[in-house]
């Protein structure tokens, strides 16, 4: 406890900074709350003259409270998103119908969707025909005639 008493409130600021940096290095949103508790403890120790025992008790109480609050405001794992196709844009095209600007030849072609051109695979189809996206394979859309 010599370091805690020697540095005074600055020990809590250092601990809070180390915990926040550790959260950046290994994200999991757990060390974030402990780091915040350490920083708040440092502020309290700076404003109010506390013994090191009181500082440790305050940190423990704040850490428990911060973790409980953090769990309450953090989204639950596996919870459905309000944007299910975020970072999976191609999957949002499944079931949609598009008109070909160019024909599908030898099972491969391209289709313009909004401002992008997508590679498609499917049965040979002439330009101007409608195709329906039935599956996605990476950046390739699998289509069939609509």
UniProtKB/TrEMBL annotation:
Membrane-crossing segments per the record: 12-44, 50-69
Domain NfeD-like C-terminal: 90-145
Keywords: Membrane, Transmembrane, Transmembrane helix
Origin superkingdom: Bacteria
A GO term from the CC aspect: plasma membrane
Keyword Transmembrane assigned: yes
Recorded topology in the membrane: Multi-pass membrane protein
Protein name: NfeD family protein
Organism: Xanthobacter tagetidis
Taxonomic path: Bacteria, Pseudomonadati, Pseudomonadota, Alphaproteobacteria, Hyphomicrobiales
């Amino acid at each position: 406890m010599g370091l805690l008493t020697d540095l005074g409130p600055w020990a809590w600021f250092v601990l809070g900074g180390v915990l926040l940096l550790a959260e950046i290095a290994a994200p999991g949103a757990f060390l974030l709350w402990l780091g915040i508790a350490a920083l708040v403890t440092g502020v309290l120790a700076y404003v109010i003259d506390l013994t090191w025992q009181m500082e440790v008790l305050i940190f423990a109480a704040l850490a428990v409270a911060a973790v409980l609050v953090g769990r309450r405001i953090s989204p639950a794992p596996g919870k459905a998103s309000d944007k299910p196709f975020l970072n999976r844009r191609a999957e949002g095209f499944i079931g949609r119908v598009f008109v070909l600007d160019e024909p599908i030849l030898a099972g491969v072609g391209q289709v313009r969707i909004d401002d992008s051109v997508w590679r498609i695979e499917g049965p040979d189809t002439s330009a101007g025909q409608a195709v329906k996206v039935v599956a996605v394979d990476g950046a390739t859309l699998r289509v069939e005639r609509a």
